[in-house]
Amino acid sequence: xxxxxxxxxxxxxxxxxxxxxxxxxxxxxxxxxxxxxxxxxxxxxxxxxxxxxxxxxxxxxxxxxxxxxxxxxxxxxxxxxxxxxxxxxxxxxxxxxxxxxxxxxxxxxxxxxxxxxxxxxxxxxxxxxxxxxxxxxxxxxxxxxxxxxxxxxxxxxxxxxxxxxxxxxxxxxxxxxxxxxxxxxxxxxxxxxxxxxxxxxxxxxxxx
Length: 208
Description:
The chain is mainly alpha-helical.
């Protein structure tokens, strides 16, 4: 349906509408494993939003592109995009998006094995995140991951457990990445029974 919408909009004057559809289509293609096609859609959408001078759309699309770079292991590219994007989101006072951008920066730093920087960046971002928001949970997940990578496993486990508790309290849907991270870390720290509970929840696709 999104491809059809894009085709219909190609001959219209609604450049912003076409860019939005391209951005959405890029996200769908990435989820389907079509990273190169998704990247092209994001880049075309980004160019259009920049030409139309829509800064909020530019930062959102640039963030999606940075996430894609992380997804395919291009961590330097993800970091460069996200660092510039963090400054812009801060200027726009977009606190919600900024938290997600900071999580993406932390992920990129972990991918580059710059674990101490990742921990410090995530800690600072957590102080600025809106409590109970998806952005805060994103930062908490990656802070836990960075702590684990940095060798601080017990603190990492405490952070990931707290992330799950905050997620539950906020009524958020199942986060398979979080449950997977908890299961893996519990196995490596000798908490096998707890790990099994998380593995069961992942298999079921739900949380009690």
